[in-house]
Amino acid sequence: MFADVLPAAIAAVLLMGLSKSGFANGFGAFATPLMALAMPITQAAAVMLPLLLVMDMVSVFSLRKSVDGVVLKHCLPAGVCGVLLGWLLLSVVSLAVVSVLVGAMTLCFLLQRLLPAGRIDWHWRPIAWLMAALSGFASFICHAGGPPMMMYCLARNMAPGHLAGTSAVFFFMVNVMKWPLYYQMNLLSSGNMHMALALLPVGIAGVLLGVYLAGRLQRQWFYRVSYAGLLLAGVKLIIDGAQRW
Predict the structure, then answer these.
(1) Model-level pTM?
(2) Residue range 24-38: mean pLDDT, rounded
(3) From CA 178, how far away is CA 46, in angstroms rounded?
(4) Which of 81, 108, 161, 211 could disulfide-link 21, Cβ–Cβ 3.0 to 4.6 Å?
(5) Does residue 63 contact residue 22 with C-beta atoms inside 8 Å?
(6) Which 3 state secondary structure label does DSSP give 37?
(7) Which family does it belong to (predicted)?
(8) Buried residues in 185-201 as b, exposed as e (16+ CB within 10 A)
(9) Is 169:92 a contact under the CB 8 Å cutoff?
(10) How far apart are CA 245 and CA 223, in angstroms?
(11) How open is the CA angle 94-13-85, to the nearest 5 degrees?
């Protein structure tokens, strides 16, 4: 059975690893849906969680000198609250609604960044709380928390290294919070953990490759790739949500 899902699983984990490194930000939103092509969505999310934790640890270690403490201080408490809210509302919130909401916000953000006037003040602290909470919420529901946090960091015009390092620490803490909640929901079965262990080298390789590539991209191209990833992720999330409606 594992051999049947292996191609989709490898592609999904490699894509998530690249995204976790700060390179190709936004593309990680494709990982769980891609893996879900070969297995149930709940199993795909369960397999991804331990991989996300390990990839986060590799990212944090690789980018430990490039972390914006001010952004983390503002965002981490709200991100944790978002995870808890997702856990509490899981039985009543539709996955389709969350996908469409995050996708629509992502596309609105990109449109807003193109407009010459009327831009939002992204240094306003309630904006940080909102985006971090939405990121934690969407991360718990469907591992799609990347776009909201990336929107906030990109809008602040953070340096690529600091953006990647800050995001790595934020999502490591978010995913640590998700672990006992997934366990309580009986999603962390031995079969899913064995599959995650088999895919672990792919995830680590993806993170290290992404760190290498991100460190060699000029700031202008880093942002272009990130915006392209958000565009594709936004469209993908809306399509996924519409299909589940």
Answers:
(1) 0.81
(2) 68
(3) 10
(4) 211
(5) yes
(6) coil
(7) Belongs to the 4-toluene sulfonate uptake permease (TSUP) (TC 2.A.102) family.
(8) eebbeeebeebbeebee
(9) no
(10) 33
(11) 30
